[in-house]
Structures are given as C-alpha cells and as structure tokens.
Amino acid sequence: MTEFYGLPNAGEFWHWTNLLHFILVGLAGGMAFLTALLHLKGYPETRRYTLWALGLIALDLFVLWAESPARFRFTHVWLFLSFHPTSPIWWGSWGLALSFVSAGLLYLGKGPSKPLAWGLLAFSLVALAYPGMALAVNLNRPLWNALLAGLFPLTALVLGLGVAVLLKSPWALYPLRILLGASLLLAFLYPFTLTLEARGHLWEEGGVLYGLFLALGLGAFGKESLAPWAAFLAAAGLRALLVAVGQWQGLGL
C-alpha cells in the first residue's frame, strides 16, 4: 500500500484480501458510527452494537495484518510511530485503532461515556472517509477520482445500516434507503466523470457486474424483507469492484 504515500506501484498490487478489507472497513466504520450515535442518544441497544463494532474492527485489522507479506515482521507498527497527516492510510490506521479503544472502553463501562462516545463518533468518521480518500489520491489510476471520496463513506453507512436492519432495529430502514439512494445516484454518475479510455476499461472489465450491483441496489426499495440484503450486496459489490478494476493504470503505463 505504499502508493498511499505517493510512491509508485507497478501493475496490480491488491488481491482478494484487500478487496475484503475495503468491505470490512466500511462495515466496521459504519457500525462504529452507529454505535457512537446510539450511545449519545442513550438507546438501550447500544451494548449489542458496541460488541458488533468491536468484532468488525478487530476482524478488519486482522485481515490487514494477515494479507501483508511482512506480517511476521510486524512492520505495520511503524504507521503508529510516524506522523504522516497527508497520508490516508495513516489516518485510517489511527481511526480504526482509536475507534476500537473508544468502543472497548464504552463496552466495559470505563471512563466518561459522553466524551468517549463523541471520540468514537470522530474516529469512526475518519475510518469512513479513509478508503475513498486513499483511492482518490492515486492520481496515476484513471478510474480512481474524487467522486470515490463521497461514494465510499456513503456505501460504508449503507453496510452498517444493513446490519442494523438485520438486527431488527426499527429506526434503520428509512436512513438505509436514503443513503443507498444517494450511493446509487453517485454510482450512476461516476462513469460520466471518467475519461473515454477509463470508461471503456470499466465497461470492458466490470460493466456487467457494475450494472448488476446498481440493479440489486434498486431492489432494496421494494419488499422490506429483501431491503437489507439487496443494499448490503450492492454496497459491498460496488466497493470491491471499483477497487479491483481501478488498479488499471491506463494504456501504455
């Protein structure tokens, strides 16, 4: 992931574990954000959501560690010993770690709950924003542009709300459909923000799947019982597809 620091990478550098990370980090960030709001509003289901947030953050951090060829040298720790405010991955690492600490203290009932909940809210926003920003800064990848900085946080919230609907939280369905609608609108507009060459590559390599995920998302506005599954599959699919196809550097590169 050195390209997040402005260093060049040649060819495709991410595999299925990285695509899984871009889904899991959305889930983790979305659930952490919802957990913080529930704590601030004093909802009785906060403890269950806090546990979900902790589990998803831990799982995502494990996937990040396990996919690295340097995992047994633990070189990832340098992210926490350095200061790179211009690097999205630096922000993302701290956002996830501090979200985990804040949620853990809230779950254990240690420390002032309101300040911890506000901290969790702030750190979860960093985790929500990091993936899209990490892609947008890769200027030598024609399919990764500034629109992804908006699309990825929205789809992350859709993932979290999809879990909330499956957990039978009555408040979750309406915002799920609102944010999913905004996500689908951005996803529909996204190809028109690309160059002709980049758009052709998107259609050639992932056009069928892209259309399928958009259609799946529209299915969330139908039968209520299918809404969380349709929204979840659409959001997760779009995130993974845009990361996979977007690794292309353009003709002649």
UniProtKB/TrEMBL annotation:
Coiled-coil region list: none
Keywords, comma-separated and alphabetical: Membrane, Transmembrane, Transmembrane helix
Transmembrane segments: 20-40, 49-68, 88-109, 116-137, 143-167, 174-194, 206-222, 229-248
InterPro entries reported in the protein's UniProt record: NrfD_2 (IPR032796)
Top-level taxon in the UniProt lineage: Bacteria
Protein name listed in UniProt: Polysulfide reductase
